[in-house]
Design goal:
This protein has helices at about 10-20, 30-40. The protein is mostly helical. The longest helix has 14 residues, at about 10-20.
C-alpha cells in the first residue's frame, strides 16, 4: 500500500484500512497505517 499510494491512492487506502482493522489497537504498524491513510484523505 505504501508503494501504491502515489499511483493508486484508492487501492492504497483500502489496504491501509485492512491493516488498521487487522492490527492490534496499540500496534506501531496500525499507527503508521492510520497516518498514511490520513495523509491520503483531503
Amino acid at each position: 500500500a505504501y508503494i501504491e499510494r502515489d499511483r493508486d491512492p484508492r487501492s492504497a487506502a483500502e489496504k491501509f484500512k485492512i491493516v488498521i482493522d487487522a492490527a492490534p489497537q496499540d500496534s506501531e504498524l496500525r499507527q503508521k497505517a492510520q497516518s498514511h491513510l490520513d495523509a491520503l484523505q483531503p
